[in-house]
Amino acid sequence: MDADYQRNFRAVNNIPGADQEEPYPSLSDFHDYEPNLEFDDTELTASVANDLEEKISISGLEYLESPVSDGTIEENFEEELVNAPSGYDSIACSNFLDDEDEDDFSDVSRYGIVDVVGDDTVGRRIIVVSACKLPNNKELDHGRLLRYLMYTLDKYVEQDYSLVYFHYGLTSKNKPPLSWLWQAYRAFDRKYKKNLKALYLVHPTNFIKIVWQLFKAAVSTKFSRKILYVNNLTELQQHLDLDQLSIPQTVLEYDEKLMAKLNRPSAGSQGEKSQVEDASPPPLPTQQFGVSLQFIKDNNNGEVIPPLVRQCVEFLSQPDALETEGLFRRSANFAIVKELQQRCNQGLPVDFEGDVHTAAVLLKTFLRELEEPLMTFDLYDEITQFQSLNKDERPRHVKILILEKLPEDNYQVLKYLVQFLAKVMDRCDLNKMTSSNLAVVFGPNLVRSQNEQLNLSAIGPINMFTDFVLVNQDQIFII
Q: Where does the record place the CRAL-TRIO domain (predicted)?
């Protein structure tokens, strides 16, 4: 048994002499780490089977029980660990994932296991995985589930993103085998880990923590810092907007029971949001975030282009900014973004202090928080049908949407934005932002449904529509 594992084992079991460092990351230790090299297969110098058998042979682990446990979380998993396969070589894993290129995952997506819910405050895309939506193992092909997860993440891994995993609802009937968990970890290589900024594990049980200890030898320190245990929704609310997450009802109910047991209010309690909204004051005349284009125009001498949009575009149009690699794909400092939003809403001067990513995040945040998206709610259904159109029909269809159906002010702002993004594309050899990359970033910020939920089936058409507009902007917009 190696020294590191002995130290971790003592820490988990409160054995005297244990390292005092907290073995599991917590929200209080959260930092916004820059992308780094995350994982190298050469770290796996011993077989998975040997590691598992060595660690399983240790006795004395105490299992933590939720104060409101109803038996849904399966904790008796030693037998499954012992029977885990001896590992997957790279060839086997590759063959598993590359059987065929599939983009029709309706059989998996219909369960709603994965949701893409937009961006957080600092511009990271948020992807939610809910264990309670996993069907019975007899109904689900876990191989296809893995390919579906990779298919979804492939659209976003080139930009900063966060993962939220709601663990409640995992049972002995729907829990994937440990061998699948290991295979998934091997499949999600550096491409997926590099830009992952945070992995929130919500309502963790001892199952997660022990499995984490078993896999820890194969996980880099840099990646482990991104894994955050979140005991309840109140903790999660410190970093993410819960209303944006579309939290499953069963998870909300579980959290309420958990917090009631602790005599604390639940952040996920329904009704709190409406009370806050009813008590919220009317917007200041200087406000730009979270209001309509018409409101901004009326309070800025009839100027169609919002002041913040113009300031961000002018700043980002400088050569050094345009040539910054990862422009619009990197996140920014949370505190700085919030401060600049407040200053902007109060009509105070905004200084980016030379930070390209701060300006880029503010521009995306402005678009995302518009009272109505730039491509209005009325156009959502037509845009999400774009992928089904014949290629010969697409130019005419887009022109009708933009030139005839889009309100004049929205048209002018969209034209201003797209002409700027054309400059970004012209420097794609340096900033790596091609039309397709920009479409992934801006599509969901330009187009969204009225219920705020981003349907995974709509992502492809929205991104394709946005890409088409960017590539053909000189033929679409009237000079």
A: 104-259
Residues paired with 227 in a beta bridge: 199
pTM of the model: 0.61
Model confidence pLDDT, tens digit, residues 156-186: 777 888 899 999 998 888 988 878 888 887 8
Asked whether 148 and 108 are in contact (CB, 8 A), the reply is yes
Residue scoring higher pLDDT (292 or 125):
292
For residue 402, pLDDT beyond 50: yes
Per-residue pLDDT tens digits for 342-374: 999 999 999 999 999 999 999 999 999 999 999
Query: Strands 125-130 and 114-119: what pairing?
Result: antiparallel
Contact 108, 79 (CB under 8 A): no
Query: For residue 280, what pLDDT is reported?
Result: 63
CA distance 134 to 145: 10
Q: What is the pLDDT of residues 422-445, one digit of tens each?
A: 999 999 999 999 999 999 899 989
Separation in Å, CA 329 to CA 41, 178, 399, 437, 442: 26, 33, 28, 9, 10
Distance CA 355, CA 315 (A): 10
* Under 8 Å between Cβ of 186 and 92: no
* Separation between Cα atoms, residue 159 and residue 165, nearest integer Å: 19
Residues with Cβ within 8 Å of residue 39, at least 6 apart in sequence: 189, 190, 193, 219, 220, 223
Is 166:130 a contact under the CB 8 Å cutoff?
yes
pLDDT tens readout for residues 304-341: 999 999 999 999 999 999 999 989 988 888 889 989 99
Beta bridge partners of 82: none
What pLDDT score was predicted for residue 419?
96
Q: Calculate the average pLDDT of the chain.
A: 77
